[in-house]
Amino acid sequence: MRPLLASLLCLTLSQPAFPAIVILKRAWVEKFQNRATIDTRFLVEKSHSSPNAQKDDGDLHFAGQATVEIGLPTVAELVNARQPFSKPAIQLIKDQVGTGTTINLTGVWRLWFEHPATSQTQFSKFPPAKNTNPDHSFEVHPVLKVGSITLEQAFDFIDGFPGHDAKKAFPFYNKQKITVRATKTAVTLEAKKSQFNYTAFEMVLMGKPEKLADNGIAVLADVHNDEDEDNPLARGIRMIFAPGTAGAKLITGKQAGDRFNAIGIPRINLHEIFTAIKKSGTQQFTGSLPYEMIIVGIKPADD
Amino acid sequence: MSLPILDVAIGLSFIYLLLALVCTSVNELIAGALKLRGKYLELGITRLLNDDLALKEKLYAHPLIKSLTMDAKLKRPAYISGKRFAAALLDLITGPNGSRDNPTDVQAGIAALENPDLKIALKALIPDPGTGTFTAHAAIEEWFNEGMDRVSGWYKRNAQLYVVILATLITIGLNADSLHIARILWINPTLRAQFVDAATQRVDKDRPQEMLPLVEYKDFDKPTESEPVLQSRVGLSDEERDLLAQVMGWDDKSLNKAPLAWFAMIVGWLLSIAAVSLGAPFWFDTLKRFVNIRNSGRSPVEARDKTA
After folding, report:
1. What number does CATH give the domain A17-154?
2. Residues of chain B with C-beta less than 8 angstroms from the C-beta of A237
């Protein structure tokens, strides 16, 4: 009788979360499906005055727009921003606020429905950000370069912040759904609000790493379940490494079966979206949310 | 772990899953046949234009909108972006001799509108000339997007209502009385075992369509090359249909009941309707948990598998 009771409870108590919609240019999806990063001319509209507390992730957030390269309200985030090497970059970002001029900003592109608006269309005109957390589904996170200051060394584990438990985060990611509509020029993505930034997990490589168009790296891996070796928390998840980072160097040349401990951030896997719409044409479809993990910190599992 | 109560729960979950799959398929067919998305979009646009039907027809006939339909014979697209709506509406308002990039033309076009309510709405929406056409375009786009948020809400509320109506029709049509089914499964261990076997096969076979991954990677050394998963409908096998026929359906006995038995049957229907309305993915996950508990004594964490 438990399912019956559960069903009655669900009917009476649950309120479905409202889905968010992002409409992307199809050509943009095709271009970025197999890239780790994006290079932009970024207008900084708002910035935190100091990074988050270390126990809260230690990120520095700043909001703005890159009207040519991104075309969506964007929040960019520096990881390990409390480390001394981040200070010049933070100062440069803070100095940019209100100047009306853009700076060169490179980082990992991240589409994820964590703070979404009801609907946003790429390359529409958006009002300036009123704070560092405007409604957004697009992030440059983590940032790899601000102006001429490189931040490759920021891609590392975060002292004092372990990240979310993989056993909570991955089942959540796996249960998310997405509805996709495509035309010849646009791709509409509809999904519910998501969560669980920074998840700590162990991964087991399924194959060899492959270099991406921007010199980033992608590799397929299982997400290990320490309670049940035969039932991974997730199978065949693409792991993304930003070019020039310690993680990218570590993973290069590794083989199927190699194991690593990592901390990463989920983003929508545009390669899987693009592959699916090539088959579906203009037919709308709903499926399991395709996601991949941006690797922020990684080390061999036996370390 | 083989307990009769667990096997009954598996049997019920399995039946709800099958009925929910039937419900989903019929719902999709109806929504497609009635072009519900397009109709809701049209209703939202009509309300946005303050019931100015002539302007609505002109809007749908505008090349920017007309070109959105797959077939030139179809007049109503199922989706219009705010940007396109704003461009088409401004173009209609300013007319063939005006420019939607000219604030004066936009204001003059609004003043010439016949519908007084729409005129007031657009005047309130778009500031006085001098602020530039871009403001008008962005304001109309935002207005449209807000309106479509409401349309999306209407559609979803009605879609849920259709599911409940379909669940009711299917439940009563098939006489899927949860109490009766539970009783049959409880007293008939042979039938119960057949249901458990079929449920286990169903769990191993496939997930409901909307829970399938979009792609699979055939070569694990090539994470930039994948193949789409065929999004096929999950039909009922002959064996599943035969099993359903053993625990539900209409006959003389089910019609000639005492009043109290009719009351129990209605309660059983209500439970079935509530359960089927929850949808196939819910019952697939529930069934999988029950089957896992039966097989191993615990429920493993759900894993997502995108590998071939």
Report:
1. 2.40.50
2. 304, 306
Binned average pLDDT, 10 residues per bin, chain A of 303 residues: 37 45 94 97 96 94 96 96 96 95 97 87 91 94 96 96 94 90 89 89 96 96 85 93 97 95 97 91 82 97 79
Q: What is the pLDDT of residues B144-155, one digit of tens each?
A: 888 887 887 787
Answer whether A288 sits within 8 Å of B212, measured CB to CB: yes
Where along chain A do its domains lie?
Answer: 17-154, 164-177+192-300
Q: Is B133 within 8 Å of chain A by CB?
A: no
pTM, rounded to two decimals: 0.63
Q: Is B256 on the interface with A (CB under 8 A)?
A: no
Single out the residue of B245, B284, B246 nearest to residue B20, CA to CA.
Answer: B284
B83 reaches A (C-beta below 8 A): yes
Domain A164-177+192-300, what fold?
A: OB fold (Dihydrolipoamide Acetyltransferase, E2P) (2.40.50)
Span B245-265, pLDDT tens digits: 999 988 888 778 888 889 999
Q: Do A1 and B182 touch (CB under 8 A)?
A: yes
CB contact under 8 A, A186 and B300: no
φ, ψ for residue A243 (rounded to 5)? -65, 140
The answer to whether A4 contacts B178, with C-beta atoms less than 8 Å apart, is yes
Our CA-based measurement puts residue B223 at a distance from the nearest CA of chain A, in whole angstroms, of 6
Chain B residue with Cα closest to A168: B301
Q: Which of A125, A238, A275 sits opposite B134 (nearest CB)?
A: A125
Map chain A to HEC letters. Answer: CHHHHHHHHHHHHCCCCCCEEEEEEHHHHHHHCCCCEEEEEEEEEEECCCCCCHHHCCCEEEEEECCCCCCCCEEEEECCCCCHHHHHHHHHHHHHCCCCCEEEEEEEEEEEEEECCCEEECCCCCCCCCCCCCCEEEEEEEEEEECCEECHHHCCCECCECCEEHHHHHHHHHHCEEEEEECCCEEEEEECCCCCCCEEEEEEECCCCEECCCCCEEEEEEECCCCCCCCCCEEEEEEEECCCCHHHHHHCCCCCCCEEEEEEEEEECHHHHHHHHHHHCCCCEEEECCEEEEEEEEEECCC
Q: Do B231 and A232 touch (CB under 8 A)?
A: no
Contact check, Cβ <8 Å, A235/B306 = yes
B228 and A278 in contact by Cβ < 8 A? yes
